[in-house]
Amino acid sequence: MTLILGQMILNHLTLNPRKCKVTQVCFKKEVPCLPSFQIAGSELEVVSKTKTLGLTVQSDLGWQSQVNSMVSKASRGLHVLTRLRRYPSDL
């Protein structure tokens, strides 16, 4: 974390603590206690899954959330197409 912050300072970049989240990846049955992470005095939120660039990343590196999201989007699109099929085209 110190190396990342050093590079950010060197390149005049900043992190927005409200948009940063912490996800712990662990495959053990007993998850160890996670230390708190802070940026500019603000503690970062710990989440079990997060969406980055359209991809949902889970703490267990599973795909269930991503697949559910894609199926939901496809179902909505299919519903719209089904409703549009009922109306005759004037083309």
Describe the model.
The chain is 34% helix and 18% strand. It has helices at residues 2-10, 64-85; strands at 21-22, 38-39, 42-43, 45-46, 49-52, 55-58. The strands form 3 sheets. Strands 1-4 form a two-stranded parallel ribbon. A two-stranded antiparallel ribbon has the order 2-3. 0% of the residues are buried.
Reading the helices and strands in chain order gives HEEEEEEH
Radius of gyration: 21 Å
Tell me the distance between the termini.
Answer: 59 Å
Query: How many structural domains can be distinguished in the coordinates?
Result: 2
Uncertain runs are none
Kindly state the mean pLDDT as a whole number?
A: 87
- Widest sheet, order of strands: 1-4
Instruction: Give the biggest sheet.
Output: 2 strands, parallel
Helical element count? 2
Give the beta-strand count: 6
Portion of residues in beta strands equals 15-25%
State the helicity in percent bands: 25-40%
Shape call: elongated
User: Structural class of the secondary structure composition?
Assistant: alpha+beta
Write the SSE topology.
Blueprint: H1 2-10, E1 21-22, E2 38-39, E3 42-43, E4 45-46, E5 49-52, E6 55-58, H2 64-85
Give structural attributes:
single chain; 91 residues; alpha+beta; 2 domains; 6 strands
